[in-house]
Design brief:
alpha/beta, Nucleotidyltransferase, domain 5, 20% strand, globular
Length: 158
């Protein structure tokens, strides 16, 4: 699973799911996000040191005028919003659903992401839902491959 979070509003954008993510797949998802016009207000992209985030991935964002920032190695606190979303989606959604395939996982995650963005209050935003917040954005990205929905710290699992 690859997703992006706007830090100002806590709004999550689900880019896609695949069992075997590669640098080319992640780069294509970034291009799709760019074409959809979701990067217009974004100033920064923060991501970890996963090998899937190659130079081509970073170049997609640099071409949009976005500064790419790598988190320090083995520093999950530097990616706290990302870590919190992964924990939340697992605890509130995926721990309760038996996922039977990639397509089913995408459907479940799209429904949950819509709920997360529209209806779920965010304590850091004075308990307003992210759809009503219009603060400046900062994107975080995370790749979690596989049809099972588990995550290991900052690094994706295979």
């Amino acid at each position: 699973m690859l997703f992006f979070i706007e830090l100002g509003s806590r709004r999550v954008h689900l880019a896609g799911c695949t069992t075997n993510p590669s640098g080319a797949w992640v780069t294509q998802q970034a291009r799709n996000l760019s074409i959809a016009g979701l990067l217009e207000r974004t100033r920064f992209l923060i991501h970890d040191h996963d090998s899937k985030f190659a130079a081509a991935f970073d170049e997609v964002f640099r071409s949009e005028g976005i500064k790419v920032i790598d988190t320090p190695i083995r520093a999950p606190q530097a990616n706290a919003y990302d870590e919190r979303f992964v924990h939340t989606v697992r605890a509130e959604c995926l721990d309760w659903v038996l996922i039977i395939g990639r397509r089913h996982l995408e459907t479940v995650l799209r429904i949950y992401t819509a709920h997360y963005n529209r209806e779920r209050p965010h304590r850091g935003l004075v308990t307003i839902s992210s759809s009503f917040c219009s603060l400046p954005t900062l994107a975080i990205t995370r790749a979690l491959p596989g049809t099972t929905a588990c995550a290991n710290s900052i690094k994706p699992f295979m």
